[in-house]
Structures are given as C-alpha cells and as structure tokens.
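Take just one protein record:
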Amino acid sequence: MSYVVTKTSDHGTSNPIVARLSVQSRQLMEHFSISEKKKKRVWGILHDKVQQELLSCYDIWSQILSREKEIVDKIEEAGIQTQSHGRVATIDQIENLKHLAGSFLYSAKSVLRDIKFMICEFYETDADICKIKAKDLNYKCLKEWAEKKFGEEDEFAKLVSEDFDLWIDEVYSKRNAVEHPGGYSGYLQISNFTAAQDPESKEWKGVLPQWQRNQNQPSSITRDMQITIENILNFSEDVLVHCLRKAGSMVPVVIYEIQKENRDSDCPIRLRVTLDQEKLKSQQNGGDDSE
C-alpha cells in the first residue's frame, strides 16, 4: 500500500505531530488485519483531518507563546512602565488573543470529532457507532458505547472514559462557552496580560494571559494549550493502537514506546511494531508438540 506524506505549511516530519500521525500511523497499520481500503480511509482521516487541525492548534499556540515571551522579556529587561507617579501601569498585550483562543478551541474540538470518526471506520457495521457518527454525538455517547460494547474494564473503554473525564469534556465545554456564552457550558473569560501591584513594596509585576470557565480556577492559556495538544496527539495514537489490536494481526506482534531521548529528531515517532518473540516461540512450540 502506497502513501504520500505531504509537507503541511512549514511542518515536515521533524514535527512530532506529522511524524506520529502520518509516518507512524502508516507503519503501525501495515502489521494488522484490516483491509487496504480501510487502511487508506483511516490514514486519510489521520493525515488529512486530525493532523491538519492539530497543526492549526500548534501554530496558534506557537504564535501566542512567541508574543508572550517577547512581552515577558521586555518586562524583565525594562520593568513595567507606569504613569501618574506609579499609580497606573501600562503593559503590552497579545493581539487578537480572544480570537486566537477561540480558533484554537474550534480546531481542538474538530480534531476530537475526527478521532471519533476514525473509530467509526473500524466499527462501521455497528449500528450504535454509525448513529454516533451520523448525528455527530458527543464523547459522552462514545464513552457509553465503548463501555456497553466492550465492558467497563476493557482497556479501550477505560481509555475513552478516563480521557473524557480528565480533559476532553473541558475542551468541549470551553469551546461551547465561546460559541454559546451563558449556555449549558457557561462563560469563558479570557484575560490578556495584566499587571498587579504589591501592596507593600508597590512594585508592579506582570500576570500572564489566563482563561477561566465559570468558577473554575484561572490557568495559563499557553500552558493549557500545550497540554491539550500533547493530550490529543497521545489520545489519537492510543485510540488507533486499541482499534488495531482488536482487529488482530496475522502474526503475533507487540507495540512498544520509544523513549523520548531515543527518538529520531528528523522523524520523532513514539510507537513502533515488532514481532512478539515470546508468543511466536510459544506458537512454534505448540505446533511442534502437535506433530
């Protein structure tokens, strides 16, 4: 089966998103018992949709982070400018921060939708999963489907359930709060750079951009974006791995993780497939015993 890994904008295979969603996904699928047609459809979702939207998230995060660093460096070098004998502080802002944050959340939500559609490709004959795809139902429905189909203790069902509870639900809620402020998910407050004055020393200090949904604790926008990108990348890989394992392989194989320090900087894939020598030996011994 042939594939074309295209360079997207300024990103090639040295970017972990491209390496892991394009190159790695293609390599993983070659070892499992799914049709060539299905492999192309799944890889198309990962390469053309998941990767594209996740790179959009990456670009937005990089843009905000770069500007954030510029402002922090300026403050560290020259301090915060003040007026009215130090009573009023002036501080630079990240341009279009609210728009960028909203665009990030839109792309993140789109990625999660496309990962959900990838799961549907593996279980296209399942009426319940087809309904989830057709109506674009949320991850809570996917979580319930996985627990019903495989059991609550199944590794795939636990993956979907745990990730939904830990971070997926909040990504959806933040985006919904932007699209429908005051609705089911409430409000998302986005604060640009601000300055706070120490009541005793009267010294002004910069406060990094933060966001806060409803009464949740405010948190760093750039830090949360970085974590979200990594979470989505790991989740997309783990979902693919679980689906492939359930599909089975002609020969016993095992998927192992390459430690970060051992990854190739030109193409830093995280997962690799190799023969499961222990199972292979066991099968061979079993065959010898039966003769």
Observations:
- The longest helix spans residues 36-78.
